[in-house]
Amino acid sequence: MRGRYLFPLSILLAIRLAVVSCVGQDDRAERDQPPQPSRRAVIIPLHEDINPLSGALLERKFDEAVESGVDVVIFDINSPGGFTTVTFELMDMVLDAKKVETVAWIEKDAISGAALFALSCDRILMAPDARMGDAGEIVMGADGAFRYTEAKSRSVLAQKVRDTAAATGRPMALAEKMTDKDMVVFKATYKEDGTVRYFSDKEWVAMEDQDEWNKGPPVREAGKEMFFTANGRRAVELGIADQTIESRDELAAALNVSEPIPVIERSWVDTLVFILNSGFVTFLLIVIGLVALVVELSAPGLGVGGLTSVLCFGLFFWSRFLGGTSGWLEVTLFLVGVLFIGAELFVIPGFGIAGVGGIVLMLGSLVMASRRFVLPQNSEELTGLGMDVLTVLSAFAVFLLALLFIAQYIGEIPGLGRLTLKPTIAIDGISVADAANAASLPGWQRVEIGSFGEAVSPLRPGGRIQVDNDFTVDVVTEGDFIETGTQVKVVGKQGAKVIVRAV
Fold first, then answer.
1. Is 348 left (phi over 0), alpha (psi -120 to 50) or beta?
2. In angstroms, how far apart are the furthest CA atoms of the chain?
3. Does the pLDDT of residue 488 top 50, yes or no?
4. Helix 353-368 vs helix 379-409: angle between axes, to the nearest 10 degrees?
5. Which of 182, 147, 179, 187 shows the shortest CA–CA distance to 163?
6. For residue 75, is pLDDT > 80?
């Protein structure tokens, strides 16, 4: 009986082994295939100086990328650096990012602040001949020459760079050497296991286990009187960068992300913000806005002057909002300044504290809206503040010159002649203005001090009166409210402002 079943069992065992072998081969073949990338990435270019405006744009683009749910954010860096304070803010932004992997791709140059920003990324990829480093902090002196910053400022920068290098696993001494030309960095090998580290001369002197290390020669890019700068090949060799690739086309393969990698380009809104934040356009917006505001205040009622002023200052503050330098405080101060000036012109007789205070508030808000700080903390911020103050004061000076021109020639400008009282020439006791076009003049030009009229609307304190049952005119009281139907007397005139008192 046992022999009868031997042959069928053998056949079954053979079939089973064949099936298992085929399945195993399929599994091995599947494992041998390269994994298909499932990670998504985006590229954010940084191809300009690092300043408050470009920094704010980069922050917005980074937030946009993170919110889109990508896995990797690649910063395409080709920049000479810029403002130290803005660079620190961008470094903190990247170091605090936990939801995405950050990569610095340097195809040409990452110099000064751009190199420090790259250090804060999780990975650094460079073209073989790209450059990175030379991050010494310099300032412009009063004579226009650039100088190495004072020791206190350098120590803050050096500590920031060391902390960043430690957080991203890069040689701290070489990173610090980017900012300190006086130190020397050399290579040392641990005798026991051959571990390689880089030390500065100051670190070596303070070490207690010097005898356990073999001290090598100074790194050729980190000698005396130079800031550390290296090309892509050398940066990878020294551990500053992670990998070299020839071009941006190889990024997807190097990072194992899906292709094509989209680029978050600058939009037309971003371009407009850059234009509106330029010094010349800022100057024009302030001058035109102030002149239009005065024209509107000289002829009450929202007209072309008011709309033009709102447009100019609206564009100014909108561009500063998106540029990251302005908030609601600056807008509030500006509007309060306008209210103070309006109250001085139409409510409070004369021109005193309210008017001067309004001007100071307006000009101060324009300066504050162009800066991220209230008080400068270093020479770099002080220089930037000086440029903004110069722009605002220059615009105000041109505005005053424009006022003088308007006051002298406004009567000859079509459409603006109604803002001034035309001169009269007496002929046989009758003025030319009275004889020719008195009826066509605005009421505030026809009314005289001492004239009487009747309030045809409540004066609280502004309103309208009728003079001699002939024409109406917009007026303000000396302060008291006056009800409709009350007899009033004109007691003063200040341009288009007519002041009355109850009889």
1. beta
2. 154
3. yes
4. 130
5. 179
6. yes
In angstroms, the CA 439 to CA 224 distance is 86
Q: Which of 105-109, 202-206, 492-496 has the lowest mean pLDDT?
A: 492-496
**Cα–Cα distance, 3 to 285 (Å, whole number):** 106
Q: Cα 52 vs. chain centroid, distance in angstroms? A: 4
Using CA atoms, how far residue 269 sits from 68, 195, 263, in Å, is 20, 52, 17
The answer to whether 117 and 84 are in contact (CB under 8 A) is no
Q: Locate 9 and state its tokens.
A: 């069992």
pLDDT for res 294:
80
Give the C-alpha separation, 382 to 30, whole Å.
63
Name the pTM for this structure. 0.69
Name the residue with higher pLDDT: 227 or 377.
227
Q: Which two tokens stand for residue 260?
A: 């094509």
Q: β-pairing, 185-190 with 196-200?
A: antiparallel
Cα separation, 330 vs 326, in Å, equals: 6
List Cα–Cα distances, 24 to 13, 18, 20, 28, 31, in angstroms: 16, 10, 6, 6, 11
459 φ/ψ angles, rounded to the nearest 5 degrees: -105, 100
What share of residues in the chain are helix, strand, coil (percent, to 5)?
50, 20, 30
User: Sign of torsion, CA 62 64 69 70?
Assistant: negative
For the chain, state the CA radius of gyration: 37
